[in-house]
Write a structure and sequence with these properties.
The chain is mainly α. It folds into two domains: 1-37, no CATH class; 49-86, no CATH class. It contains three helices and no strands. The longest helix is centred in the N-terminal third of the chain and has 19 residues, at 17-35. It is globular and about 40 Å long. The protein starts with 16 loop residues before the first helix and ends in a 6-residue tail after the last helix.
């Protein structure tokens, strides 16, 4: 799929925030705000809770790293500026 979309897949070293800061921050945030705050009784319970948490993360929660809009607001702004293609 990456090749079909002309996307170059680059690997970074594990636990190396200097080269992988965005994803390292994402995992810290998801751990602090989802995994460590909640307990799950089953895989189904986990999936249900995650399906409710994910829209909160993308549509409701302001993100400091992108100057406080939600990820969807940021994405929509980039679409308006033609910086992202669908």
């Amino acid at each position: 799929m990456l090749q079909k979309l002309n996307i170059i897949h680059k690997y970074t070293r594990v636990r190396r925030p200097q080269t992988n800061g965005k994803i390292e921050r994402f995992w810290r945030l998801i751990n602090d705000n989802f995994f460590y705050k909640l307990s799950f009784t089953s895989h189904k319970d986990f999936n249900t809770r995650f399906m409710y948490w994910r829209p909160f993360y993308n549509y409701k929660r302001p993100h400091r790293g992108i100057k406080y809009p939600t990820p969807m607001e940021k994405f929509e702004k980039l679409l308006e500026q033609n910086l992202v293609c669908l």
